[in-house]
Amino acid sequence: xxxxxxxxxxxxxxxxxxxxxxxxxxxxxxxxxxxxxxxxxxxxxxxxxxxxxxxxxxxxxxxxxxxxxxxxxxxxxxxxxxxxxxxxxxxxxxxxxxxxxxxxxxxxxxxxxxxxxxxxxxxxxxxxxxxxxxxxxxxxxxxxxxxxxxxxxxxxxxxxxxxxxxxxxxxxxxxxxxxxxxxxxxxxxxxxxxxxxxxxxxxxxxxxxxxxxxxxxxxxxxxxxxxxxxxxxxxxxxxxxxxxxxxxxxxxxxxxxxxxxxxxxxxxxxxxxxxxxx
Length: 278
Prior knowledge:
Layout: E1 33-34, H1 43-50, H2 64-85, E2 93-97, H3 103-110, E3 114-118, H4 122-134, E4 141-145, H5 148-154, E5 159-165, H6 174-184, E6 185-196, H7 200-213, H8 230-240, E7 243-253, E8 258-262, E9 268-274
Protein name: Ubiquinone biosynthesis O-methyltransferase
GO molecular function: 2-polyprenyl-6-hydroxyphenol methylase activity; 3-demethylubiquinol 3-O-methyltransferase activity; polyprenyldihydroxybenzoate methyltransferase activity
Family: Belongs to the methyltransferase superfamily. UbiG/COQ3 family.
């Protein structure tokens, strides 16, 4: 999930919100809610991350890169929320699809949103729950062990903002996930998706470089055949009903540990889409 380049823009930083509240599952619960996982799941892909679940919040561990790029992703998400909804994350209902250990989910809650994280790895959600509780969060964050398609059927048009970051390339049918994101959004809501482009450069950087040369990710984390071009993701979004609004490349230098956004989308990229109001 890493592109290596020389940065031209300054590093973004996360703005913490003190006394943010987080809830895990239902009120007073200490474990995430669990439901049927559906059929759009490859448990071998889920297992790649659950086997490392106790290291999600180790900023020097296997998820170090996610921690390092999180402020940049968070800021770009909120910029698009402001651009298309008029105000930032504060007071918004937010859903983070494929939330893992809750790195982004927790950050969005700290920005003032009412956040929910969903994932198919129960161990990931347990790690997220423990970290949220250790942070003294109580009412603003909850986690659910549920397939996003099932959640969309149960709670359509329930969220102002939906994020799905670095997850689409790990499921059998990413178009189902995009459709579920659309169904879960309220009209006028914003969805931010991120994934990895499919071309020789992305293979070189995201697999050979990140997994085999630098060891930033475990070998086998990514399957090149599952990478998604921007044109393919755009088609999925339009088919689901979205209006595509913005596309940006995410670049990271593992040597300097600096990250920045640019128009080049050859490797990692993010796409912001909006659900029409009519």
